[in-house]
Amino acid sequence: MKIGLFIPCYVDQFYPKVGIATYELLLKLGCDVHFPMKQTCCGQPMANSGYEYLTKGCDANFIANFSEFDYIVCPSGSCVLHVKDHLHDEKQEKLASEMRKKVYELTEFITDILKVDSIEGNFPYKVGMHVSCHGQRGLKLSQMTELNAPFFSKPEQLLSNIKGLDLVSLRRKDECCGFGGTFCVTEEAVSVKMGQDRIKDHEKNNVDYITGGDMSCLMHLEGILRRQNSPVKTIHIAEILNS
Q1: Which region is the signal sequence (predicted)?
Q2: What single DSSP character describes residue 142?
């Protein structure tokens, strides 16, 4: 299968190693992976701020870059959900509709399309799993704790065979970190307090790393950790699975 690698702009600019880890991991899993060089922002920041009408150029560019692929894979649940819900093109609406069904978050693609249950690797550290809201509540990557339903977690399932990894059980495992895209700018104080509360849950378990599927959330937590001079580090799940 021919895979188009969709890398969020903030990952491309600030965390390129996450994009590289995603690319290498998909290659190891037998995928034919391509990175369209002219891809840009998917338009999520504008849409989240109430300016979705300004994203038509982003939509057209996304379609031009990714229409040829069997699947589109991205290491970010929020960007994937945005494309799934908001990709439109008045001139090519049928094509846009088809593409919305072909875009997948990384762990979702590995478990649901490649049918891989777990991945062997080596990461001898104590790890806390941060569950991002878009991935859980939008893409259904894991079960919500307020529901009386069987637990599942696609990211945790993939981490189960990583040698040496000690995945801790958090007290409030699906609580928002406070990032929320532009929310962290418009409501900075609330955003920071939510992030501090989220970090406390991890620190009480003495984790070495906080991992997750959205580098945007991890970037928010990383900033708070640095300001607190905390020894805890953040790492995207793709980097662990590629270890």
Answers
A1: none
A2: B
Q: What is the CA radius of gyration of the chain?
A: 18
**Measuring CA to CA, which residue among 221, 219, 215, 181 is closest to residue 197?**
221
List Cβ neighbours of 79 (8 Å cut-off, separation of 6 or more). 6, 8, 42, 44
CA of 30: how far to CAs of 3, 75, 78, 110, in Å? 11, 17, 26, 11
Model pTM? 0.94
CA 179 to chain centre: 13
Q: Which segments of the chain are extended strands (E)?
A: 2-5, 32-34, 71-74, 103-105, 121-122, 126-129, 162-163, 166-167, 209-212, 233-236
Q: What secondary structure letter does DSSP report for 34?
A: E
Question: What would the pLDDT profile of 121-173 be if each residue is shown by its tens digit?
Answer: 999 999 999 999 999 999 999 999 999 999 999 999 999 999 999 999 999 88
**Farthest CA pair distance, the chain:** 53
Q: Which two tokens stand for residue 208?
A: 């070495």
Kindly give, in sequence order, each residue whose CB lies less than 8 Å from that of residue 25, ignoring residues fewer than 6 positions away: 106, 119, 238, 241, 242
Q: Kind of pairing, strands 121-122 and 162-163?
A: parallel
Nearest to 66 by CA among 28, 107, 31, 34: 34
